[in-house]
Amino acid sequence: MGRVNIKKVCIGVLLGLMAVSLADSNTVAAIQLSKQEGDRLQRKIDEITKNGSAVPVKARRTPVSEAEVNSYLAFNAKDKIPQGLTNPEITIVGDGRLAGRILVDLDEFKRHRSSQGFMDPLSYVSGKVPVTAHGLLRTQEGKGQFRLESAEILGVPLPKPILQELVTFFSRTPENPEGFDIDAPFNLPAKIREIMINKGEAVVVQ
How far is Cα 44 from Cα 87, in angstroms, rounded to an integer? Predict the structure, then answer.
């Protein structure tokens, strides 16, 4: 899973890396988050990374719980979340499906964007608003791809091109000025062969 992949999943799922019209949203709220759970995931990430650099790589499966993921996002990765994004939550729905929710500072986004006219749904919204999305993560043979199924802003369907604008803006880095492409396949780091998405748990397979 590695730090790079966690960032991709966080952004890709939470914004487009992430959240439902959430019949499942109460699940995250009910989970007890803790620094201990976040630290447990950090140790697992370190072990996965170390195993991925070994020659040969040892076959292993590392389970990651929903509580660990959300605790990691709340405590350990708080400073890694791009400015303008807060309170990320992920629900591991199962059967490859992920859901998430994140608060997006639209004022920060719109300061760097020209108006798209009265048909643009973002023209009527300002401040920090929840963006939710639901999608399917498929991985095999060291590659992954996220397929967006739905996205909403304040309960209103969010067109995919506008969602991609948000993802691009908040995921840009000096090394990747184009940001994260929701549809693009990506390489899994640390010699990960696949990530199995079960209900409430992901299993990292090396």
Answer: 23
